[in-house]
Design brief:
This protein is an alpha/beta fold. The protein is 46% helix and 17% strand. The protein is built from 18 helices and 20 strands. The strands form six sheets. Strands 1, 2, 3, 4, 14 and 15 form a six-stranded parallel sheet that branches. The termini are far apart.
């Protein structure tokens, strides 16, 4: 029987600015899940890319005096650098402005067109007479026709989440110069999204991995009737030209999700695997997307319909997370609550602190995550440093000092061993179910069991009068340290790797959990993490 494969993705980040801690939530969540799958021995790859096309990049590039591709590539390199600092372990990280992505975009377009899922028709579009350019929906701003919120985009309201036609927007204006736009006719390409309503609803109802609240949300859109989707844009536009169509370009949301496939192809080219047979047309491969709640429409309607029409496999799961708030409010530059990834490292030094903090709040349920600086500092200092890191250092340095760094033999008939073992399977299920919050809670329980046992036995007091008992206590606790190194590996890969090194071990996997580490010499204990002052 062929072993199951996992292909896991995070949403493609837009190459139009630096990473902030709101962006990082999704990539940390995905990375923890992927590292867990690797830890238990699954065949998994993690692919992603930068989304490099569209009008915003083109306009901002012009303002900067740069070519759009150079402007976007600058942020692509910056994103890669920031992701590596936060220990995000991509197997392939690409961008959408590649020949490979253009090849797959054309493949989708031609396949869908031949099957009758793509057609052309003349439509009215917004045109700015002052800028002398056609305006994509995102470059028209006005009042939301549903809730009345000002300064909303021409396709979607960020306040109420409604989607609408740009001509429904009240008091529209050009987002570039502020002039009132005009209606002009232009012929465009459309994807027959309406033809997939029944199949999309079946997929939603049959797929038990999807979050129920999201399924209900998307079903309501289908019931209201799906509109066919305009997949082209007029020049000037930064993107791929549509073959055999004058001055027409693929809309960014057509080629962006295809970047998942292109990034997979780049991984396959390096490893000798086949993008179709091994992943996107392999029934033994589970495709899993992680996305934010702001792009549900695209990933639960447009993207699955494109995959259905082009005869690619659909995702097994699309996990949707909430947004990051800072001190209970939306991130804001004016309020000083807009924290860039690099600023976080400058202030707090240790990127794993953010991984641990986010993990302690993440579950499969859709909900926003709040970054409160006071709560963050208290949690890291009390739990990660006070409960976990200090325990590990105390135990290993005690063995260094009193027993020539040797872990001795011991009886496994101890209450603390039994209690620790009870936690291992629970933690495994919590990881698998994306319930990282409870995984952290029970990992901390294992550390607390070790701390309580070490304090109760007081080996530093009895080492001279009962050397065997003191050595037994320290040896059992050293095994708890080893188990913590394994249990924390998906969340704190660098901390766990350093613990492994101090234990004089390497390559620990989930199957190594237990209390079999005896008659073994460890390395020198070092303090790995320090309190936030």
């Amino acid at each position: 029987m062929t072993k199951k494969k996992y292909l896991v993705t995070s949403a493609l980040i837009y190459a139009n600015g630096p990473l902030h801690i709101g962006h990082l939530l999704e990539y940390i969540q995905t990375d923890i899940f992927v590292r867990f799958l690797r830890l238990i021995g699954e065949d998994v790859i993690y692919v992603c890319a930068d989304d490099m096309h569209g009008t915003p990049i083109q306009v901002n590039a012009e303002k900067s005096g740069m070519k759009p591709e150079d402007f976007a590539m600058r942020f692509h390199q910056e994103h890669k650098n920031d992701f590596s600092k936060f220990l995000i372990s991509f197997d392939s990280y690409s961008h959408t402005n590649t020949h490979i992505n253009e090849k797959f975009t054309n493949l989708f377009f031609e396949t869908l067109r031949k099957k009758g899922y793509i057609y052309t028709k003349p439509i009215f579009v917004m045109y700015c007479p002052q800028c002398k350019r056609f305006l994509p929906d995102r470059f028209v701003k006005g009042i939301c026709p549903k809730c009345g919120a000002p300064e909303q985009y021409g396709d979607m309201c960020e306040k109420c989440g409604a989607t609408y036609n740009v001509f429904e927007l009240k008091e529209p204006k050009c987002a570039i110069c502020g002039a009132k736009p005009e209606k002009r006719e232009s012929e465009h390409f459309f994807f027959r999204l309406s033809a997939f309503s029944d199949r999309l609803e079946d997929w939603l109802l049959q797929n038990k991995e999807l979050q129920p609240e999201i399924v209900n949300y998307v079903k309501n859109w289908i019931k209201q009737g799906l509109n066919d989707w305009c997949i082209s844009r007029d020049k000037p536009y930064f993107g791929f030209k549509i073959p055999n169509a004058k001055d027409k370009f693929f809309y960014v949301w057509f080629d962006a999700p295809i970047g998942y496939i292109s990034a997979t192809e780049e991984f396959c080219k390096k490893t000798g695997l086949d993008v179709f047979k091994d992943y996107w047309k392999n029934d033994e491969c589970e495709i899993i997307h992680f996305i934010g709640k702001d792009i549900v429409y695209f990933h639960f309607l447009f993207w699955p319909a494109m995959l259905m029409g082009a005869e690619f496999n659909l995702p097994k799961a699309i996990y949707v997370h909430g947004m990051v708030t800072v001190e209970k409010e939306k991130m804001s530059k004016s309020r000083g609550t807009f924290i860039l990834a690099r600023e976080f490292i400058e202030r707090f030094k240790e990127p794993e602190f953010l991984r641990f903090y986010y993990a302690s709040m993440l579950s499969k349920k859709l909900g926003d995550v709040d970054f409160s600086e006071d709560e963050f500092k208290h949690f890291i200092n009390a739990e990660l440093i006070g409960n976990v890191a200090n325990f590990c250092y105390r135990v290993l340095s005690f063995l260094n000092k009193n027993f020539a760094s040797a872990i001795g033999s011991f009886s496994e008939d101890h209450h603390v061993i039994t209690e620790c073992k009870k936690e291992f399977n629970k933690i495994k299920e919590y990881y698998r179910e994306l319930n990282f919050r409870d995984a952290v809670k029970h990992i901390l329980k294992v550390a607390s069991l070790g701390n309580a046992y070490f304090q109760k036995e007081e080996p530093w007091k009895i080492v001279k009068k009962d050397v065997y008992k003191a050595h037994e206590t320290a040896s059992i606790c050293a095994n708890i340290v080893k188990n913590l190194a394994i249990l924390l590996q998906p969340i704190l890969p660098r901390f766990s790797a350093e613990l492994e090194k101090q234990l004089n071990l390497s390559g620990l996997k989930w199957d190594d959990l237990g209390f079999e580490l005896k008659d073994h010499t460890i390395g020198k204990a070092e303090i790995i993490l320090k309190k936030i002052e």
